[in-house]
């Protein structure tokens, strides 16, 4: 067999009206970048990672590449069930994997409600397995499915809950671990890697893709937002428990189950003081929308080690309609970025990856300009958990002809900034 024939060329997968998934060998799997369909570059394919899930997308029509017609075709109806509809199938990849292309589909009705808040990556079938258009973007195994022993997680969580009955934050995180299966909460109870410190029920943004709070007519929120403000004592108790036992441990303010932690900078600062009075090791990190530079200064002065700024686009025209800020502007985010770098913190961007927008030439050039101006240590490549049609239309995205591809974007930025790292998780920056 030559090298050429070894390259994967998966076929279309689709679902019938009963939700059963089939492959269709006569058509090639396709992908989507923005609103445009694309054939898949075999270099962008990997076997579906363990811990990923497949979703059937209701009210959609799959799109595939027809090698005979040399064109993209809508696959409908289901040829195996006369007159039955065919639906698109997408992969929601496990943590630490980043998508190169979205699943190829079109909505049957553009006014149908948005899909739930997950990422929808292109998936196909070749040689008895599913393949996805993505790559492993972080070798860290902290959230790999096989690293979690369910019995051990349950045992450790229950033991800790019993020992800290009065700490409301620990009780809250116990529920996250046992009921919602949150990997960060599970790692807290396993005493390793990065642990969550949620603290804020409120926020000053109204992100279209907010996981913890949605308006009527939006997609359903996937996480319950914390409904109380823990005290600095409760927060530092969690931080100390984790940093004392986790090798190169990280504790992070700013989680999917809360609002914006910088809404209460005094609380964060006090929690850091209390923690650092006892423990000098480990990393204290802040995941944030970076909307409040003044509050951030206060937290930095208290001893913050690293910051991760979440952003969907570095262009204001796409940032504003996504974040819908209340009482701050895009420029405040840039001020926070600059401030954190000037203060010597490790600074990451939590870049919500949407092929077509994230890797468009204009977007990457703007990103490079900002990195050149402020400096940056790491880009965390997180797939954007959102219905791509709904998202791109709501922010008024115009398809941009010139795209580098997600891997091309990494290559471009690496060439310009050799010290810049790419990954998926918050790294330890202190021993
Ligand atoms: S900044 Fe975070 S918490 Fe606030 S609306 Fe956006 S996603 Fe939700």
Describe the 3D structure.
With 431 residues, the chain is an alpha/beta fold. The chain has two domains: 10-136, no CATH class; 145-423, TIM Barrel (Alpha-Beta Barrel). It is 30% helix and 24% strand. Strands 1, 2, 3, 4, 5, 6, 7, 8, 9, 10, 11, 12 and 13 form a 13-stranded antiparallel β-sheet that branches. A seven-stranded parallel β-sheet has the order 14-15-16-17-18-19-20. The longest helix is centred in the middle third of the chain and has 14 residues, at 150-163. The protein starts with a helix and ends in an 8-residue tail after the last strand. The model has no long low-confidence stretch (mean pLDDT 95). The protein binds iron/sulfur cluster. Iron/sulfur cluster binds at residues 203, 205-207, 210, 212-213, 259-260, 289.
Essential attributes:
431 residues; 12 helices; TIM Barrel; 13-stranded antiparallel sheet; seven-stranded parallel sheet; alpha/beta; binds iron/sulfur cluster
| Strand portion | 15-25%
Main sheet makeup: 13 strands, antiparallel
CA radius of gyration is 22 Å
Helix content: 25-40%
CATH superfamily of the largest domain: Aldolase class I
Low-confidence stretches: none
In total, the number of strands is: 20
CATH C-level of the largest domain: Alpha Beta
Mean pLDDT: 95
Shape: globular
Short summary of the structure?
Helix content is 30%, strand content 24%. It has 431 residues and is of the alpha/beta class.
